[in-house]
Design a protein that fits this description.
Length: about 375
């Protein structure tokens, strides 16, 4: 075929974690532990589930294309007015919309080594030149990223905390970076994992920076701490002009009715969010202590996952874990062939993973 954007032919499709159902069928196992996709191990919030279920009685209707109620709920939760919001079919759609709105063929898009793969897909699909800046200690080297900005740079993706490394940068580092980037360059700050951050860690809250930086777009998701990955809903916060442009190019009904209803309810379920964060705090500690006992190194994480280093090829370990019914994430797409990423699960799931890993490594 003659492609509108020739570089599409060079893209690798996003590779999701192996579905548990597939492994069940392959191995005839039943008790599969799926710790591959940074999902919430507690299941959905009961309030969100009830709201999504109730929305199904109106399936003949289009969803509210403007997302009035969810925007009102976001205003109540975060104090953001609706003219600064764009709702997305997952935050992934918003990462793409930012590129589609602002990036022209031949422009440069900057992101860090070990960045979420969706950034390079979004950049290349716009015929942009992707500029990957080497990481420092597996995290963003913001100084080097600022130095990489050229006349042709149009957009920069940052993630705080970063997936798949769990690394993070401080508010002072972020502000220094934003101060040094010209205003004509759009900065997308991906905060998909922000709810999990240790409150003492001094990390920025991107939503509070949007007023100070007219070129900043902050993206958030309901897929992680709010437990709604299957429904696909996220939001972007930026100044009114940017939000207006993003809303012009999104599809009219990009967020479905069940997702809108569930997300509004999830924002009200403070008890669920607290349980989620408490489970994550305990689980991160359980995994860290377990990995230390196995003599393994891992990256300090502010997310709902831990990335460990095996000092040998990770693929065979990943496959051996599959045979034990434990699905984690190999990181070849990130050029980290000796690392595995494991999502924080329930206490039982974390134990299953640690026991399986101990068995695999002792073979
Ligand atoms: N950003 C990062 C850093 C992620 O890890 C993910 C999901 N893996 C996303 C964005 C996209 O999440 P969603 O589309 O489900 O909101």
């Amino acid at each position: 075929y003659s492609l509108a954007v020739p570089s599409i032919a060079t893209l690798s499709p996003y590779r999701p974690g192996k579905p548990a159902g597939e492994l069940e069928r392959e191995l005839g196992l039943t008790d599969i532990v799926s710790l591959a996709s940074n999902e919430n191990p507690l299941g959905p919030s009961p309030l969100a589930l009830a709201a999504a279920t109730a929305s199904l009685s109106r399936l003949e209707r289009y969803p509210d294309g403007a997302g009035f109620e969810l925007k009102a709920a976001l205003h109540k939760a975060y104090g953001i007015s609706s003219d600064r919001l764009t709702l997305g079919n997952g935050s992934n759609e918003l990462l793409n919309l930012a590129a589609r709105a602002f990036v022209r063929p031949g422009d440069e898009v900057i992101y860090s080594q070990y960045a979420f793969v969706a950034y390079s897909i979004a950049a290349k699909a716009c015929q942009a030149q992707a500029v990957e800046v080497p990481a420092r200690d597996y995290g963003h080297d913001l100084h080097a990223m600022a130095t990489a900005v050229s006349e042709r740079t149009r957009l920069i993706y940052l993630a705080n905390p970063n997936n798949p490394t769990g690394t993070s940068f401080s508010e002072a580092e972020l502000r220094a970076f934003l101060d040094s980037v010209p205003e004509r360059v759009i900065v997308v700050l991906d905060e998909a994992y922000t709810e999990y951050v240790d409150p003492q860690a001094g990390l920025p809250n991107g939503l509070e920076l949007v007023d100070d930086y007219p070129n900043l777009i902050v993206t958030r998701t309901f897929s992680k701490a709010f437990g709604l990955a299957g429904l696909r809903v996220g939001f972007a916060v930026a100044n009114g002009q940017i939000s207006d442009l993003m809303n012009r190019i999104r599809e009219p009904f990009n967020v479905n009715a069940a997702a809108l209803a569930a997300a509004s309810a999830a924002l009200e379920d403070h008890d669920y969010l607290q349980r989620t964060l408490e489970n994550n705090r305990r689980g991160r500690r359980q995994l860290s202590e377990g990995l230390e006992r196995l003599g393994l190194e891992f990256l300090a994480s502010q997310g709902n996952f831990v990335t460990l280093e095996l000092k040998r090829e990770a693929q065979p370990v990943f496959e051996a874990l599959l045979r034990q019914g434990v699905i984690v994430r190999p990181l070849q797409p990130y050029a980290m062939p000796r690392h595995l990423r494991v999502t924080v699960g329930t206490e039982r799931e974390n134990s299953r993973f640690l026991e399986a890993l101990a068995r695999v490594l002792s073979c």
